[in-house]
Design a protein that fits this description.
- The protein is α+β, with helices and mostly antiparallel strands.
- It has helices spanning 31-34, 44-59; strands at 7-15, 18-25, 63-73, 84-94, 97-106, 109-120.
- A six-stranded antiparallel sheet has the order 1-2-4-5-6-3.
Length: 122
């Protein structure tokens, strides 16, 4: 985990090609002291890293972000108000790449939609 202690995976359900993860965000983490003081918001780059790490865990492969398209941040994730988020990842592997379509949400609110391609490095 690149950002140690930022989140914990509470549940991980694999039903190929779809992965469902329930994640608890730790609002006391240092990253929220700078992003933003008094109004913590989950940084987008941390969300993308989380998607990468979950994909690596499920596939057992080391990945490198090659392309991110259709990145749509649709709602803020405030860990004080929404500490539990749900991620749905749809994976497809082609040659030396894994393509991921993601929807991240809390309650009935979609926070992030993302399509990305990860290059398999190991």
């Amino acid at each position: 985990m690149l950002i140690e202690g930022l989140y914990t995976i509470l549940d991980l359900e694999e039903n190929s090609p779809e992965i469902k993860a329930k994640v608890k965000i730790h609002g006391s983490h240092e990253v929220f002291k700078g992003h933003f003081p008094g109004n913590p918001i989950m940084p987008g780059v941390c969300m993308i890293q989380m998607i990468k790490e979950i994909t690596e865990q499920v596939t057992g492969k080391e990945l490198f972000l090659a392309v991110a398209t259709n990145v749509k941040f649709m709602a803020k994730i405030n860990p004080e108000e929404n500490e539990i988020i749900d991620l749905v990842l749809t994976l497809s592997e082609e040659n030396d790449q894994i393509k991921v379509k993601n929807i991240t949400s809390y309650d009935q609110t979609v926070a992030l939609k993302l399509s990305t391609t990860f290059k398999i490095v190991a």
